[in-house]
Write a structure and sequence with these properties.
The chain is an alpha/beta fold. The protein has a single domain, classed as Rossmann fold (3-Layer(aba) Sandwich), CATH 3.40.50. It has nine helices and nine strands. It has a six-stranded mixed sheet, sandwiched between helices. Strands 2-1-4 form a three-stranded antiparallel sheet, with helices on one face. Strand 6, helix 7 and strand 7 form a beta-alpha-beta unit.
Length: about 240
């Protein structure tokens, strides 16, 4: 079982005069599935980008196991995180297999084709491996993006409304993968508008508002699902 801990301290991100992230504190631990809720403009997507090292904070710090890799070893940080965002960040003129092999090599994964078998099978991608991404449906592109995020077995996984565009079968596949990664010790943070479904796989729920964590629900279970849903719906 992994034992990793990511901590954000006083994280701030501004775009001009727009304060998107304001003195945000966050803790993610191995084996947690954390559901991040918040209305549009709350700062969820910006936070995911900061955690994914796709954007840098203006102030504050992000550490993993007390090491600030942003300052000391950014490549090591990137190797510990995987993310799938609104923008799939895959190459349209490559096939699905070519994309996954290419990104596997960026992570120095040995025997990439062998490594891919689990993801291809569990995301039902085998029928699309030789097809160029530009000709695939939105939902299949999402699944390729998910596979890309998980290639290197990251310790921390970030999904930003990744279930958007997925059919029920694909959503179930994604949730099964998330639970498998949870059991293996990864920490997963997901944003979602499908609260009634996503809450079923979460053991922690955060509500974000105006750039900071407004409310935290720990020890989430079926006993307090409706309480959390009612709280969120009343403030949205």
């Amino acid at each position: 079982m992994k034992n990793n801990h990511l901590i954000c301290k006083s994280l701030t991100k501004n775009f001009g005069s727009n304060n998107v992230i304001q003195n945000l504190d966050l803790s993610l631990k191995s084996g947690d599935v954390t559901l991040l809720l918040g209305k549009n403009g709350a700062g969820k997507s910006t936070l995911i980008k900061l955690l994914s090292f796709l954007s840098l904070p203006d102030s504050g710090e992000i550490t993993i196991n007390d090491v600030n890799y942003h300052k000391n070893n950014s490549e090591n940080y990137r190797g510990q995180v995987g993310s799938a965002l609104h923008n799939n960040m895959i190459y349209n003129d490559l096939t699905v297999k070519e994309n996954l092999i290419f990104f596997s090599k960026l992570y120095f994964i040995e025997n990439p084709e062998e490594n891919l078998k689990f993801l291809i099978n569990n995301l039902s991608l085998s029928d699309y491996l030789t097809k160029k991404v530009r000709y695939l449906s939105h939902g299949i592109r999402k699944k390729v993006s998910i596979a890309k995020a998980l290639l290197h077995n990251p310790n921390f996984i970030f999904f930003d409304e990744i279930e958007s565009g997925l059919d029920k079968k694909s959503t179930n596949e994604l949730q099964d993968l998330i639970l498998e990664k949870k059991e293996s010790g990864s920490a997963i943070l997901i944003t979602s508008h499908m609260i009634h479904q996503s809450i079923n796989i979460a053991n922690k729920v955060l509500v974000m508002n105006n750039g900071y964590i407004y409310k935290t629900f720990s020890n989430v279970s079926s006993k307090n699902h409706q309480e959390i849903i009612n709280y969120y719906e009343n403030i949205s």
